[in-house]
Amino acid sequence: MYKMLKIRNFLGRSSQLRSFTSQSKPQLNEISLLGQNFARDDYTNITDKICSYLGMNIYLDQNHPLSLVRQRIVNYVYKTFTKSRGNPVFSVFDRLSPVVSTNQNFDSLLIPKDHPSRSKSDCYYVNRDYLLRAHMTAHQNELLRAGLNNFLMIGDVYRRDEIDRTHFPVFHQIDAVRLKTKDELFETKALSIFEEGANEAFTSDQGKQACHSLEAVKLMEYELKETLVGLAKTLFGDEIQYRWVDVYFPFTQPSWELEVHYDNNWMEILGCGIMQQRILSNAGVTEKIGWAFGLGLERIAMCLYQIPDIRLFWSKDTGFLNQFKTADINSKITYIPVSQYPQCKNDLSFWLPENGDFSSNDFYDIARSVGEDLVEQIELVDDFKHPKTGKRSHCYRITYRHMEKTLTQADVNLVHKKIEEAVKNVGAVVR
Ligand code: DAH
């Protein structure tokens, strides 16, 4: 689904360049993104199509499957880490602009200057200095600088990649950071986070950063892994099988991936690790150690709800979206594929039979029996009571769709007429 930014570690140099101009109307050689104008240059490779995804924020739409997964993960983190009076320790940032500098996306995370993940063929560059973020980790540095110790970063990320059932150039991630002081980590005063005199840039032979004490790293590793296994169980169930795999990220050391066994496959669901101390010190954070993780929402949602194709997340089709309308975000939902042929909608309004015993369910049954399999959805769009006569009328919006062909309006009218006749037969008066 998404390639992790797993890479060898060299030293990255930071560049803090500003190359966006004012908020005025874009000039010919400029691109306007979310209200800001950027100068084009030889690096510019974003397309109008990709720009059109900016600001869509489908992961924030109440009942979108990505939103359900987002809310479940946020709730889990809120519940797992609370202050003494029960309020959450973590802050959530889910509206950060996806336009970031190369410094944010790469340099601040120690990603080497010549690393392949920076290439024009992998990223959507606005110009030499700005790109659409390729991962949510791009915001780590700015939030550390702002003084935050426990936070989640949620949003859309952009990568140029193959396009198939599981790859799409826009997808969504949640990243987390948790910092701890010596006092928060240890009960014993004698222990310390740091190894005296060791260099932040080196790795010890135990696989940890040379500057960290082994006991600090082990306690952090324990909390991180406990947290993430707990999350996997919350999402996929207590019986889930999982395993930890050692990996490499430039921004964490040591680093791991969590794999869960699903549908006869080992599937990697997240990357995590102990944050590079140099990232913390570059951001002005001293005397603290941190863990971080990042995960992709699409992969989790596709497994949880058995959604077979990543493009479905962008569907505006109510045949897709309505399957995720639920009052309980934790309810088990299994996606049922809908036809790829277009929908056709017709409304039907009628006065209810005056004997008073007519319910919407009666109408649904009538429509289902008369309309057979062409009726995909029915929605009550108006319930009206006449102020003088007391008579009630209902208006239903019926969505028709054929599984094997495109329905014409004429086909639909025939069936719609039959439903109309059938409600007349139970005493309704069609308006
Ligand atoms: N940014 C990584 C990716 O997109 C995921 C990740 C790994 C995020 C480890 C982290 C982390 O914060 O600590 O593949």
From TrEMBL:
<dbReference type="InterPro" id="IPR036690">
    <property type="entry name" value="Fdx_antiC-bd_sf"/>
</dbReference>
<keyword id="KW-0030">Aminoacyl-tRNA synthetase</keyword>
<comment type="similarity">
    <text>Belongs to the class-II aminoacyl-tRNA synthetase family.</text>
</comment>
<dbReference type="Pfam" id="PF01409">
    <property type="entry name" value="tRNA-synt_2d"/>
</dbReference>
<dbReference type="InterPro" id="IPR004530">
    <property type="entry name" value="Phe-tRNA-synth_IIc_mito"/>
</dbReference>
<dbReference type="InterPro" id="IPR005121">
    <property type="entry name" value="Fdx_antiC-bd"/>
</dbReference>
<dbReference type="GO" id="GO:0005524">
    <property type="term" value="F:ATP binding"/>
</dbReference>
<dbReference type="InterPro" id="IPR045864">
    <property type="entry name" value="aa-tRNA-synth_II/BPL/LPL"/>
</dbReference>
<keyword id="KW-0436">Ligase</keyword>
<dbReference type="GO" id="GO:0000049">
    <property type="term" value="F:tRNA binding"/>
</dbReference>
<keyword id="KW-0496">Mitochondrion</keyword>
<keyword id="KW-0067">ATP-binding</keyword>
<feature type="domain" description="FDX-ACB">
    <location>
        <begin position="339"/>
        <end position="431"/>
    </location>
</feature>
<keyword id="KW-0648">Protein biosynthesis</keyword>
<protein>
    <recommendedName>
        <fullName>Phenylalanine--tRNA ligase, mitochondrial</fullName>
        <ecNumber>6.1.1.20</ecNumber>
    </recommendedName>
</protein>
<dbReference type="GO" id="GO:0005759">
    <property type="term" value="C:mitochondrial matrix"/>
</dbReference>
<feature type="domain" description="Aminoacyl-transfer RNA synthetases class-II family profile">
    <location>
        <begin position="69"/>
        <end position="337"/>
    </location>
</feature>
<comment type="subunit">
    <text>Monomer.</text>
</comment>
<dbReference type="InterPro" id="IPR006195">
    <property type="entry name" value="aa-tRNA-synth_II"/>
</dbReference>
<dbReference type="Pfam" id="PF03147">
    <property type="entry name" value="FDX-ACB"/>
</dbReference>
<dbReference type="GO" id="GO:0004826">
    <property type="term" value="F:phenylalanine-tRNA ligase activity"/>
</dbReference>
<comment type="function">
    <text>Is responsible for the charging of tRNA(Phe) with phenylalanine in mitochondrial translation. To a lesser extent, also catalyzes direct attachment of m-Tyr (an oxidized version of Phe) to tRNA(Phe), thereby opening the way for delivery of the misacylated tRNA to the ribosome and incorporation of ROS-damaged amino acid into proteins.</text>
</comment>
<keyword id="KW-0007">Acetylation</keyword>
<dbReference type="GO" id="GO:0006432">
    <property type="term" value="P:phenylalanyl-tRNA aminoacylation"/>
</dbReference>
<keyword id="KW-0547">Nucleotide-binding</keyword>
<dbReference type="InterPro" id="IPR002319">
    <property type="entry name" value="Phenylalanyl-tRNA_Synthase"/>
</dbReference>
<keyword id="KW-0809">Transit peptide</keyword>
